[in-house]
Write a structure and sequence with these properties.
Elements: H1 6-9, E1 15-16, H2 22-43, H3 48-51, H4 56-77, E2 81-82
Antiparallel strand pairs: 1-2
Helix pairs in contact: 2-4
Length: 106
């Protein structure tokens, strides 16, 4: 049995940004707004005299769903790979908030 933790074993290997990739967050938000507008376009009152005969909520919602799916697909096809050896940055000493104390590296 090894005393090495899982994080120590993978410390030198590159890994993907995963859910914290900004493209996933943008895609999820655009998808959520797209679902809301699509439902409003399908279930809400359509006033064609205001939009020139076009159901603007429906078409905008569908476009947002497509763009959101594009962002998520982009993040899956070309993920951001964090290279090995990248550590979290230390606190900025000029910041007025209290500084974090990190244990010394051994």
């Amino acid at each position: 049995m090894s005393d090495v933790t899982d994080s120590d074993e993978t410390a030198g290997e590159p890994h993907k940004a995963g859910l914290f990739d900004i493209r996933n967050i943008i895609g999820a938000l655009l998808g959520l707004y797209g679902v809301i507008l699509t439902l409003a376009g399908l279930l809400g009152e359509h006033e064609p005299e205001k939009t020139g005969g076009v159901n603007a909520n429906l078409w905008t919602g569908l476009a947002l769903l497509a763009v959101g799916a594009g962002f998520v697909a982009w993040a899956k096809v070309r993920p951001i790979v964090v290279p090995p050896g990248v550590e979290a940055p230390d606190d900025d000493p000029t910041r007025p908030a209290p500084q974090r104390r990190r244990p010394p590296v051994t």
